[in-house]
Structure prediction request, 418 residues.
Amino acid sequence: MIDVKLLLEKPKEIKKSLDKRGAKIDIDKIVELDNQRRDHIQKIDNIHKKQNESNETISKLKGKDKEDVIAELRPLVQKEKVLKAELVIIEEKIAKVLMSLPNLPLDDVKAGETDKDNEVIKEEGEKTKFDFKPKDYLALGEKLDIIDIKRAAKVSGTRFGYLKNQAALLEIALVKYVFDILLEKGFKPVIPPALINYEAMKGMGYIEGIDKDEMYHFEKDNQFLIGTSEQSIGPMHMKEIFDAKELPLRYTAYSPCFRREAGSYGKDTKGIIRVHQFSKVEMFSYVLPDKSEEEQELMLSLQEEFVKSLELPYRVVSVCTGDLSFPSSRTYDLECWIPSEKNYRETHSTSNCTDFQARRLKIRYRAKSGNEFVHTLNGTAFAIGRILIALLENHQQKDGSIKIPKVLHPYCGFDVIK
Prediction:
């Protein structure tokens, strides 16, 4: 949620920033509501002042004189109740407007409308070349009996898949491998709930920011299946206040993730790129405000370390304003080379959400000036399905086997899938 004080102090700058995201805002309406809020607070304060003065007078009176003064106070008490009730309504209207607005993009984020306007800022590794005709990951997976789409469709429908045999073991190996690295970096391991309530999902900025058709929502319980681990990790500390010395607080979470993919009709309908359920290891950090940009660079550097260690060609993309998620102020995508498509596909992303989520979730820290909102960040460690695709395609051999990167050998117990 945007700070209303900032909005009122710099209305033109905020409007311009939101325009870059394609978000419209009625500044005059917010100013009018804020004036009403201030007016009501002033009137309530005046009533309190009058009541305090009258109470001093009452303490000195007796009999009928005392009763007369008390009688004069009764209309003020009633008026105060009305003003307080109206104030609640005004503040709810302000909150509703603020909750409908996405986070402000940081100054260096490129203006754009779609992912076509995203900017490549780095390309690493030579694109994989073969002296034979390579297969796509699905053909490899089916031949090696490690990915089963047909039986998943029989059991669960479209956009599901079984990971079997060495692919199942490879998922466990990838999770343990990345956990070992992240724990050494100070991240705390978490297995989070996959179901969260409405307050948590709204606080993270995913009620307004995503088409509800994309989320699995259980109306009877008013709960949601998470689409990414961060949606469950972020609200862990809602309505809490940290000591500054506790920050940064870093978590790494492993969980199933669920997405309807309702908006991707006709896209990647076969295979395990766009599925309704997948496993993911996520990084999440709560940091001091002046450390969030540094933290995002740390997350990006870790993502690059993971991908390099798996011997995968990749590029880093700076996401434009039109492609930012609702709570993000800056996002970097890391895309791995997929030989069968002769293209890069997103396997990782990292987002700086500044104080946007913390403000909605009321997560603060004790500063010298008082309690201030923390900054929150998230970043993919491994989205299992997509990193498996990159591994299978880039490390396939002429005989159809898959060579496993050396860093994973101690974790999976084999060096080739054949």
